[in-house]
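Appendix B: a complete holo record

For completeness, this appendix reproduces one full record from the ligand-bound portion of the collection. The bound molecule is adenosine-5'-triphosphate. The inputs are the chain sequence and the ligand SMILES; the output is the full three-dimensional arrangement of the complex, encoded as structure tokens. No fields have been trimmed.
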Amino acid sequence: MFNIETEGLTKRFGSVTAVDHLTFKVGEGEILGLLGPNGAGKTTTVRMLACLISPSKGSARVGGYDIAEESMKVRGVVGILTENPSLYERLTVYENMDFFAEAYGLSDVQERRDRFRDLLDFFQLWDRRNDKVGKFSKGMKQKLAIARTLVHKPPVLLLDEPTAGLDPESANGIRNLIANLSQRENHTVLLCTHHLEDAERLCNRVMIINRGSYVVAGTPEELQDRIAGKPTLQVKLKRLDQSIVRAVKDIEQVREVSADDVAGSLLITVDDLVGSTPEIVRKIVHAGGMVLAVNTLRPSLEEAYLKLVREESS
Ligand SMILES: Nc1ncnc2c1ncn2[C@@H]1O[C@H](COP(=O)(O)OP(=O)(O)OP(=O)(O)O)[C@@H](O)[C@H]1O
Ligand SMILES: [Mg+2]
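The structure of the chain with adenosine-5'-triphosphate bound, as generated:
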């Protein structure tokens, strides 16, 4: 099973508890986004899972192997992109890849060549393979850093802020590459990020941590719903009449109605969106309303994130 499972994972640095009894799972083929403010413990978690540092307490299995007992095996199944990946600036793209392949004991020359060709093609770096890395832009370096983490075909990827410090276009490029990659190779991914676009675009689920501890986890939509309170239905009408507002207020499932005269729409709070929407629309039409559009309003993941982290900190 190429999944990740932790149980009470804890790391202390002197008096600082960087990661505090963290228990979570990332299913095989799943992409879990790990979010949290600076110093929340994201990098420390990733470093423990990659066996770069050992936990003070608790345990974890990565790809089925125990990080404390079977660290060599864990290293074999994990590809890690560290927070500030260092490349050999005086070496070419190809030489950098070679250096990494060597470190992972990929001795078959033909296999190495095929893998490099495949990866460098995928990351649009094949034409630049003989260029020294020192001259590259940050975005290109980041592509190479990700390509290199994949040389040994690791089924589990730990990506620590893959889009940090990139301009919006390059960040989007990296995001698309990760999305395509996970479709192509079905990796299990733990992705630390401060870019909520990463989480929305790439992750099946996100987990927020703060001060080393678990705050909340769920799909991006679930987190949005969680802070939104009751769902809100926005019904855009050709003309907004008080009689329509009254008709809506009379519906049993409706909790609150407000009229947005400028936008020409009604904002309706209900308990159960799916269950009551057809009835609401029917009543509006019955009262003479001409419905132009019906939307569900959700807060952005960013709003959800800020609210959840603030609540937790207070
Ligand atoms: N090697 C270390 N020695 C001492 N303290 C450390 C060490 N590494 C991390 N810490 C502390 O552990 C806590 C968690 O740090 P960590 O780097 O894991 O956070 P993070 O969530 O990755 O933050 P960021 O978003 O800024 O990257 C911080 O308080 C940090 O100062
Ligand atoms: Mg970090």
